[in-house]
Amino acid sequence: MTKLDSVGYGVATGKIILMGEHAVVYGEPAIALPFPAVRINAKVEKIAQSIVELDCYFYQGPLTEAPQQLTNLITAIKESLAVLQQPQQGFKLSITSTVPAERGMGSSAAVAVATIRALFSYFKQPLADSVLLELTNQAEKIAHGNPSGLDAAMTSGSVPLYYVKNQPFAPISLNLKAYLIVADTGITGQTKKAVADVAALLESHPQEIGDKIVTLGNLVKQSKHAIEENNPVLLGGYMNQAQQILVDLTVSSPEIDLLVAAANQAGALGAKLTGGGRGGCLVALATTKSAAEQIEAALIEAGATITWIYQIGEK
Ligand code: MEV
Questions:
Q1: Which residues belong to any copy of the GHMP kinase C-terminal domain (predicted)?
Q2: For a tag on the chain, would you pick the N or C end, based on fewer CB atoms within 10 A?
């Protein structure tokens, strides 16, 4: 019998896709980085009853009867218990989060990662990176429908990646002297629907949309060189070109377009949506802290609900 600690903890950070969202679903590369400014903490505690209590999701009862909206979380719990060879039993899961939900920052994957870590810690079992990734991917398939695996890779790992679906992870060194300004439109993004809509668009206009996806992939490859050469001006230009393609793919939104324009007018080297789009967050680029602060002020003025300034490489 496993001797149980009565509490287990798990943590996960959010993520930012710098370049390549949506195209990554079709095998093109993406560049993404962990975003430690936002994180999720999960705590699993023993309780007397043999029910699961999902504190902050207001659910108490058997796992099998948990509400449909929680299926990604429930998948993470059920699959973890299966790997841990534990029957369903009573515990309380509490989650605190500073990752804005449904804003393209990997909230659903991060919730799964933090929960899986907390469960393994609760049962005092080691958790291999490959097992964490596999379990997170299973939960993400429920949340996103047809995920590229990028969100699971980013939130379960801790290094920037040059990510290509179904290929071994390639960490990328972001030796770029630059600041990212991240801003939330305050509008809930719709990753699952946006991904499905791009798929439908590709089916109805295979040549035109296929070309745009390949162009987006090429911009990611060029961005990798710009980063390696520490050339933020070039990278910013690629970000603006990527944003235009994301608009063409119908995954931007009037709120994102407004904030992108505000960032560029305030001197950003480039700005684009990050994540699934249709709301959610955008990311802008600057080379100095004072330029970043000026862009942040313009974004707030234009209606951003939350903003962050992140110096690339900062832990
Ligand atoms: C979502 O964060 C990123 C998308 O490319 C979807 C995916 O990669 O699964 C839109």
A1: 225-303
A2: N
- Indicate the residue among 119, 142, 170 that finishes a domain: 170
Same domain, 186 and 77: no
Q: Which residues line ligand 1 (CB under 6 A)?
A: 17, 21-22, 24-25, 104, 144, 147-148, 150-151, 191, 195, 275-276
- Residues 156/112, Cβ–Cβ less than 8 Å: no
- Which residues are catalytic, by number? 151
What ligand 1 atom has the least distance to the C-alpha of 20?
A: 5
Residue 92: strand pairing partners: 45, 53
184 touches 305 (CB < 8 A)? yes
Residues 31 and 90 in one domain: yes
Q: How far apart, in whole angstroms, are the C-alpha atoms of residue 220 and residue 170?
A: 14
In a domain, 2, yes or no: no
Q: Tens digit of pLDDT for each residue in 120-134?
A: 999 999 999 999 999
